[in-house]
Amino acid sequence: MLNKNRVTRNLASIVLLAGCLLVWPINLISQTKINSPYSMIGPGEIKGNEYFRNLGMGGISQGFRSNTSVNYLNPASYTAMDSLSFVFDGTVFSHLYQQKFSGQQQRVLYTNLGSLNFAFPVTNRWSVAAGLLPWSQVGYKISDFQQNDIDGRVNYLYEGNGGINQVYLGNAFKLGAGLSAGINVSYLFGRIDNKRIAYSDSAGFYRTAWSYSDEPGGLMLSYGLQWQIKLSEISNITLGASYTGLTKLDVKQNRYIYRTLASVGGSDTLNVSPDNKGTMEIPANIAGGVFITFNPQWAAGIDFQTQKWSEYTSFGQSYDLNDSYQIKFGGVYNPRIETYSGFLSRIEYRGGLRYGKSYLNMEDASGLEHDFTELGISFGIALPIRRSLSGLNLGFEYSQRNSASTDHISEDFFRFNVGISIYERWFVKRKFY
What secondary structure letter does DSSP report for 322? Predict the structure, then answer.
């Protein structure tokens, strides 16, 4: 007979997943999630290349395979799922942004859902995965002013929020001799609102507001390969790579320009351009990596990822963006992975580093262009659930983003992730004596 408790847990997992998938898109669209002035550039701050589960290992993903979590950044990894198993994982993250400029600083904390994923094998050689995660996020509020002899002090307020979300369906296949291939078919959707307001205390100055709302949507295809090579009875090496081609999203844009004269009252609409049609072109992304399992206790990996942001366009307009890259390194240690007994001996310890060049490229006061670099150090632990392969993942990263110029705002990030991985064996008959 079937174990009733296990069936109950399986049904609970399905209900939880369905509820999250129904509620989360509303949460994603309706909230401002970050506060970074640099998110106003391009499509926003990119989240779609982050593997939230491995935050404590530098975010490595390309050669990483696991039968207890879903590695959506390389779809070939889905073949690591055990037969008759069902895996669900989800992540919540809290990020503290700290910006510094000319001796001033501000801090902003936000918390949000990171990703929801599930995967299961269909046959011995075919596995399926699906999930939902943020692809980019926009959130900023900037004030500035200019002084002139006619209007006096003119104040400017720049504000933006929203982002692009990603829902995907993945398939992976074992090709033989340790080689696996996979594909993710993703749909990107969302809304990005940007607003600019100019106002002054001058009686004859019109308070003018420019409002732009972009709603992108379209398909993205990502391909992955992994080749696992056995080195000995207790060690192996996995080579991994993924490629996401040029992605063209259809964008519907609404533009509004209106003004108000404070001394008279009322408002005057200067321009309304609803439902403008255009495209956003997201450049190709290439990533590769190696993950080595030295023995059941020790494993480590390294990734390299690059994207040609110099080819990014929106509504036919190109931007002066850099081609970005990232190098990630991470390792993991588990004292006694071979046993279900002993909670402390089954805790998994992780550490990692990452370094890269952002797509940001900005001029200083003298007109000299500067690149922005990012450096992060991370660590984490995995807490097991008693007599189960399920567990709780905790990860922390401290990172910096800045340029060589003191004319630019530097940013420190304190990022903390909490994730749950639920591993269940389905359709297994139990015998009791």
Answer: P
Q: Is the pLDDT of residue 18 over 50?
A: no
Provide the pLDDT for residue 194: 92
The residue type of 143 is S
Are 213 and 163 contacting, i.e. CB atoms less than 8 angstroms apart? no
CA 318/CA 359 separation, integer angstroms:
13
Whole-angstrom distance, CA of residue 248 vs CA of residue 251: 9
What are the distances in angstroms from CA 415 to CA 90, 112, 395, 419?
16, 12, 8, 13
**What's the pTM?**
0.86
pLDDT at 236 over 70: yes
- Residue 222 and residue 241: Cα distance in Å, rounded? 11
Specify whether the backbone of 44 is left (phi greater than 0), alpha (psi in -120 to 50) or beta. left
CA dihedral sign, ordered 32, 90, 220, 301: positive
Query: What is the structure's pLDDT at 25?
Result: 45
Closest CA relative to residue 117, chosen from 24, 26, 240: 24
Dist. CA 243–CA 291, nearest whole Å: 18
Q: What angle do CA 116, 118, 124 make, to 5 degrees?
A: 160
User: Does the structure show a pLDDT above 60 at 303?
Assistant: yes
Residue 158 is encoded by which pair of tokens? Answer: 């720049």
Across 406-417, average pLDDT: 90
Tokens read off for 245 = 């081609």
Q: Read off φ and ψ for residue 323, nearest 5 degrees.
A: -75, 125
**Which of 41-55, 157-171, 252-266 is predicted least confidently?**
252-266
**Is the Cα dihedral 64, 68, 69, 75 positive or negative?**
positive
Give the distance, in angstroms, between the CA of residue 317 and the centroid of all CA atoms in the same chain: 25
Structure tokens at 287: 């990533």
For residue 67, the tally of other CB atoms under 10 A from its CB is: 15
CA–CA distance, 181 with 127 (Å, rounded to integer): 11
| Arithmetic mean of pLDDT, 186-192 | 96
Distance CA 102, CA 105 (A): 8
Q: Is 249 helix (H, G, I), strand (E, B) or coil?
A: strand
